[in-house]
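Notebook entry, structure prediction.
Reason for the run: the old model in the group folder had no record of what sequence produced it. Starting over properly, with the input documented here first.
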Amino acid sequence: MTHEILQPPHWPRPKGYANGIAATGRTVFIAGQIGWDTQGKFTRTLSSQVKQALENILSVLERAGGGPEHLVRLTWFVVSRDAYHEEIREIGAAYRAVLGKHFPTMSVIQVVGLMEKEALVEIEATAVIPEGGSDATVKLPSHGNLASA
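New structure, fully documented this time:
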């Protein structure tokens, strides 16, 4: 299985995400995960909820035999664009602590609210896991690596 980063040659490289990915293998769809722990408790900051939501995504993905390298898409729903920008460094650090330097396609959307009142973020995920194993090969565009967040 190969994940191929799709980067038009004359576009600037994105920071912290990919413009497109082509992948083959077993597709895993993960419902929106929020920043609560296994006891249903929330932390107060957006960045700490992001970290927990990403850990929750990995817990589901591991049940399918996958890891962070198999993620091909993340869709983030945040209740505050301002909080997202204010905590961007902490969010980046939380992201790298959980997913490393793997940057799939991503969208971040501000919403009025989420179903759980204390939730500040919800993240949906899609992953593609190779048939018969978990080794993934990422093919980068010929003009360079993706920038990190």
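Summary: Confidence is low (pLDDT under 50) at residues 142-149.
The old model has been moved to the deprecated folder.
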